[in-house]
Amino acid sequence: MTPSKIKTLAQLKKAGYSPKSIKTELRENLLKALKSKENLFEGIHGYDTTVLPDLKRAILSQHNLLFLGLRGQAKTRIARMLVHLLDEYVPVVAGSEINDDPLQPISVYAKDQIAELGDKTPISWLHRSDRYVEKLATPDVSIADLVGDVDPIKAATLKLPFSDERVIHFGLIPRSHRSIFVLNELPDLQARIQVSLFNILQEEDLQIRGFKLRLPLDIQFVFTANPEDYTNRGSIITPLKDRIESQILTHYPIQIEDSAKITLQEAKISPEQTKSIDASEDFVYLIETFVSKARESEYVDEKSGVSARLAISAYENLYSTAELRMILNNEKNTQVRIADLWGIIQSFTGKAELVYEGEQKGHHTLALELLNDAIKDDFHFLVEDFTKLKANRNFKIIHTYFEAGNAVDILMNASDKEYTKALKSVPGLEGLAKELAPDLTYLNYSMELILHGLSSIDIISKAIMVDKVAFGSDLGNLLSDLGDDIDFN
């Protein structure tokens, strides 16, 4: 069917058009996509065996949907992608406010048009991108916003009494007829407003200023909610929950590889940064480990969650930290360092909700602890067998160097030349790094990681200051016997 050639109701009938509900439309297009192995949810990672199968079952069952999960779990993003399951174009009665189907009109306007013009009724075409309506539920949302109200200006202009249906100004829901309507943060909606949704879902009637309209609205409803809302700000009324046929539980990615894909996909790294700043892929995994530890921390409110946006903004800040350092040193390019990770702390302080004990500790202190734990994990991955490490000649040289009271400072804003010189000033460090990580492209990263790792197992000490990370000896914790076992846990 070619929309550009069909302008009237007669032409539409001749073309063999037959109406179908939006839920049937979604179901049929999903079946086609599944049979052709099409990837409908490109860019959604970590949901292949959980959320997406649940969603597909719900669409095949022609259900209204509720996505229930913590913030930053792609609930709204998935809802927006459902548009791709709609037909590219659908016909509507030209001028209709609520997308009337020419063969199944429901508004007074469309019925009057067809009664007056018959087969000459003009037809327009609605693209699927225009069949998506999204609203954030807030306590001040009114029934007039969602359902509609009497419009006195329209009554005066048309010279109609308020008892005439044509004076009604339809709200978002009637205007979403034959469309996807997404209502985010459903529990924030007042209970009396939720009751109006119940009527629409179940009874197909609208209550507007005394009018009781029987409008068989054809809408795919998608709701999103955060479990925290059920106790802190409101709840979904039981009759409404009962009428939402499928509830889909979302979650944070289980595999760190999926989290890393999301971060790399969503982070806004400018072309200038990409061209001038080189970053080992280990850094995105370090950040994801940091975020994972934040989610598991007893000091972070698990009901609030730790959004994927934390990792994304942290990765962006990591690049910006390296870029700022590069500019200060008048350098044209640089590599990201572990010391640059301290620039991501500002991302954590604005996105993690802490429990009382966490507030006492403070966002900054907790972020440093979590970051140190993440770096420690990376070091443990690098050094799989400490028994071999403690027998390594270069390790013994490093140990002896610090045991003798020597120290090295890694300045946060040191130039690349100063940074490399500081690392190479530690005897045996370069040799050990080459043995553990032969990738010479990121030799400095490996050398710096070893220093952090040795401090994590009390071989050397580490002090984080405003402008530097100082590594030295700590006689109180220093092992006197290299043969003693070291606990990596």
Annotation keywords:
alpha/beta; 44% helix; Rossmann fold; 14% strand; five-stranded parallel beta sheet; single chain; 3 domains
Describe the protein.
With 489 residues, this protein is α/β, with parallel strands linked by helices. It has three domains: 3-147 and 173-193 and 217-235 and 243-249, 3-Layer(aba) Sandwich (Rossmann fold); 252-375, Magnesium chelatase subunit I, C-Terminal domain (Helicase, Ruva Protein, domain 3); 383-489. Helix content is 44%, strand content 14%. The chain contains 23 helices and 16 strands. It has helices spanning 9-14, 22-35, 51-60, 75-81, 108-117, 143-146, 152-158, 172-175, 191-202, 229-232, 238-243, 256-266, 271-276, 282-296, 308-328, 345-351, 356-361, 363-382, 386-390, 393-403, 416-424, 429-436, 443-456; strands spanning 65-68, 89-93, 123-127, 132-136, 148-150, 168-170, 179-184, 205-208, 211-214, 219-225, 246-249, 277-278, 334-335, 408-411, 461-464, 468-472. The strands form six sheets. A five-stranded parallel β-sheet has the order 4-7-10-1-11. Strand 8 (205-208) and strand 9 form a beta hairpin. The longest helix is centred in the middle third of the chain and has 21 residues, at 308-328. It is elongated and about 100 Å long. The termini are far apart. The model is unreliable at 475-489 (pLDDT under 50).
